[in-house]
Write a structure and sequence with these properties.
Largest sheet: 7 strands, mixed
Number of helices: 8
Mean pLDDT: 75
Radius of gyration: 22 Å
Order of helices and strands: HEHHEEHEHHEHEEH
Number of strands: 7
């Protein structure tokens, strides 16, 4: 059984991989993986109990199987720096377009409402020493289950910006130049990390990333607004870059799951 600790490790690993701009699909069997190596270390701990035996913890993390079937209900779980949040309208429009493109054979998307996740979490007692990331992942899993979703698509967009001076900066010293001369360069980079996981077991089916970069020139008096505007553009462009990769990712996932099912017959 996958514990909240396993979920935290899964999401943390996805964040590391996303920073390397990697995309991956997984359909391997946990039992096949464990069968390749004899059991090592102490006897398994009782189900549901925490363990200090690393070998046992590794065995538990690996002991999970891909059970996804299409069509499926996918729960969109958007993360920001302060926790779970609903997708803003500009991102939601892109998700709606993707849903129409994928069609009913893939399934349907549902947005994870943070309030629904909080209400569902009242049925679960979080461990006293639970890390914030583990608590958030547990709430996502519980909220997605409350909405009867099969999978959760957890994604976290972010954007950073910076300004630089152009050779025209000296004209900022004049009143007219400060307002009309494009003396400041504005750059913004957007990234988004994403992970498709099984709500019931925690199995990670896919890891994806999206990236974007944009830059412009602005006047000295508007550099602040330009920074905010271009960070928003970078964020939205990174989400668009992520979304355009999803159809191929799902196609690969469906093919591998189908081949796996055929080989088991």
């Amino acid at each position: 059984m996958t514990t909240w600790r396993d979920w935290a490790c899964i999401v943390a690993a996805a964040a590391v991989l996303a920073g390397c701009n990697m995309s991956a699909v997984q359909t391997s069997s946990g039992s096949d993986y464990l069968a390749r190596t004899p059991a090592i270390g102490l006897p398994p701990a009782a189900a549901g109990e925490a363990t200090t035996n690393l070998n046992e913890a590794v065995r538990r993390a690996a002991d999970v199987e891909p059970t996804l079937q299409f069509p499926t209900k996918i729960c969109l779980a958007r993360i920001e720096r302060f926790g779970l949040t609903e997708p803003p309208p500009d991102e939601l429009a892109q998700w709606e377009q993707l849903s129409e493109k994928l069609g009913p054979s893939v399934g349907e998307f549902a947005v994870l409402n943070p309030l629904v996740a909080s209400l569902a979490a009242t049925t679960y007692t979080h461990p006293a020493n639970e890390a914030p990331l583990a608590r958030m992942v547990a709430d996502i899993r519980l909220g997605a289950a409350r909405e009867h979703c099969d999978t959760a698509f957890i994604y976290e967009p972010s954007a950073t910006g910076k300004t630089s001076n152009t050779p025209l900066q000296l004209l900022d010293l004049t009143i007219v130049g400060y307002f009309i001369v494009p003396s400041t360069g504005v750059q913004a980079d957007g990234t988004v990390q994403a992970l498709l996981v099984d709500v019931r077991s925690g199995y990670p089916y896919a890891q994806l990333t999206g990236q974007s970069h944009n830059e412009t020139f602005t006047t000295g008096n508007t550099r602040g607004n330009a920074m905010v505007s271009h960070e928003d553009i970078a964020r939205l462009s990174a989400v668009a870059d992520l979304i355009k990769k999803i159809p191929d990712t799902i196609s690969t996932l469906r093919t591998r799951l189908s081949d796996r099912k055929s080989s088991e017959k």
